[in-house]
Amino acid sequence: MLVDNEQILEALWETIYMTGVAFLFSVIIGFILGLLLVVTRKGHLLENEPVSKVLNAIINIFRSVPFIILMVAIIPLTRIIVGTSIGTAAAIVPLVFYAGPYIARLIENSLLEVDKGVIEAAQAMGASPFQIVFRFLIPEALSSLVLALTIAIVGLIGASAMAGAIGGGGLGDLAITYGYQRFDTLVMVVTVAILVVLVQGVQSGGNLLSRRVRRR
Amino acid sequence: MIQFEGVTKTYQSGKQEIHALNGIDLTVETGEIFGVIGFSGAGKSSLIRTVNLLERPSSGHVRIDGKDISTLSAKEIRKTRKDIGMIFQHFNLLNSKTVFHNVAMPLILANTPKNKIKEQVKELLDFVGLSDQATKYPDQLSGGQKQRIGIARALATNPSVLLCDEATSALDPQTTQAILELLRRINREYNITILLITHEMGVIREICDKVAVLEAGKVIEQGTVFEVFTNPQQPTTQRFVRSVMNDELPESLLKQIQNPSRKNSIYRIQFTGTSVGQPLMSRISRKYQLDLNVLFGNITELQGAPYGNLIVEFTGPAEEIKKALADIREGNVHVEEVLNYAS
């Protein structure tokens, strides 16, 4: 094997770091966008057609750009935000731009699953839009939201593999540079195995948490 | 008191305009149970939702205790809604929360202190008979229990009006009875005005004081339940009444008696209130020497008063039958001819 354990551990840490930080920011962005997508819909709490249309268009644009292209395309922006266009920190910016709109759609889906009748009952009780969102909509969707965010983390882990293209490091980068370009099959197998375990762990954790929050 | 004045509701569905409500004028008096019945698509659901502005009327006014609610600000609307409880066909409970939390919800929204919430929820659960289910979740309960939770939740803010949106339509007949009894208790014990919509005439017969029949967004008939059930005018109303009070002659019987050679006359006799208690048939039979044969009939209770409907075959001299009928009519009993071959 062309790499030692330390390198693998470092790559693992880079993957977790990139995914974790990117996830944090994309959840914040995705949550706000997803919530807005839902409440500005026709017939919903704060129906607003222009806002809804613009949001949908922006999200669709970001969602349609392949990650590898997005990463290169926003390099100037990345430079403004983190001061450099290479390295792990630089990889986080495109990851957020990629996962934010994605999470917005996932959250939109989860929130739309909440029975309209529950919202109607909330309105009939005299709840304000803010109360409806935080006392009814989100608690009712929580279990489904957790599963949606689990999907997002798995997606982010996958996307972070491409961060190597701008020197972001991580397990994906290791697999490409050593496993693929230098024909070290063992590195390839080991990194993929670690990724499999990582994804399994995230998914199991997500499932467990989702069951836990179904009833509170 | 809830007053509807020329209330209309028009939806835009693609290029088509749908008139859900077509000028509704109705008055629901304080403390009564008012039922609105109609087939699906008649506009019932839109009508009941204009009362708490879940739907805004396209034109016209809805007044609650004289106050036009369509002029209120968003904040005032929320305040008004707290005085109007609502229960739903599919209960609309929070599945992620316990029974306790569901009932407490309106109080939590109003920032009621925790110890007061506890006290009040306990009282409400006692009232609906579910105090032992407080820690359960809605999906562990039966339909009837869920509706009781819905009712407890609706009563949490001490409303003066309760709106029931097909509240028993998803329940079996026995559970329906129990829920209707609970609604009647709420009406009597707390003097809460109840406006309910339903497509089941049985619900109207069971608990309503007044009824309005809705068709194509219009009130086609209204009155006290007694009036409407004993003397329905519109074909739709007659269909609804017939669905719970079968007063038509069975086909087979009709064929058998449609025979001029029998020299008989058949009349429908409707007894109401006190006239039910009198031995009318035997008295008439003796007095006029007529043979009376009850072909079909039923006696039911309407709003606590008995109501009888008999189809009777009179056999005897036409002159005597005439006299007998005049006699019957004097006793506050409604008589109408069904068939006549005697004269």
From TrEMBL, chain A:
It is found in: Cell membrane. It comes from Planomicrobium okeanokoites. SUPFAM superfamilies: MetI-like (SSF161098). Coiled coil: none annotated. Residues 12-204 form the ABC transmembrane type-1 domain. CDD domains: TM_PBP2 (cd06261). It is a multi-pass membrane protein. Pfam families: BPD_transp_1. The chain crosses the membrane at residues 16-39, 51-74, 80-100, 145-166, 186-209. The keyword Acyltransferase does not apply. InterPro entries: AA_ABC_Transporter_Permease (IPR051322), MetI-like (IPR000515), MetI-like_sf (IPR035906). This is Methionine ABC transporter permease. Keywords: Cell membrane, Membrane, Transmembrane, Transmembrane helix, Transport. Its main location: membrane. Belongs to the binding-protein-dependent transport system permease family.
Automatic annotation (TrEMBL), chain B:
Pfam families: ABC_tran, NIL. The keyword Nucleotide-binding applies. It comes from the Bacteria. GO terms for molecular function: ATP binding. Residues 2-241 form the ABC transporter domain. CDD domains: ABC_MetN_methionine_transporter. InterPro entries: AAA+_ATPase (IPR003593), ABC_transporter-like_ATP-bd (IPR003439), ABC_transporter-like_CS (IPR017871), ACT-like_dom_sf (IPR045865), MetN_ABC (IPR041701), MetN_ABC_transporter-like (IPR050086), NIL_domain (IPR018449), P-loop_NTPase (IPR027417). Keywords: Amino-acid transport, ATP-binding, Cell membrane, Membrane, Nucleotide-binding, Translocase, Transport. This is Methionine ABC transporter ATP-binding protein. The lineage of its organism: Bacteria, Bacillati, Bacillota, Bacilli, Bacillales.
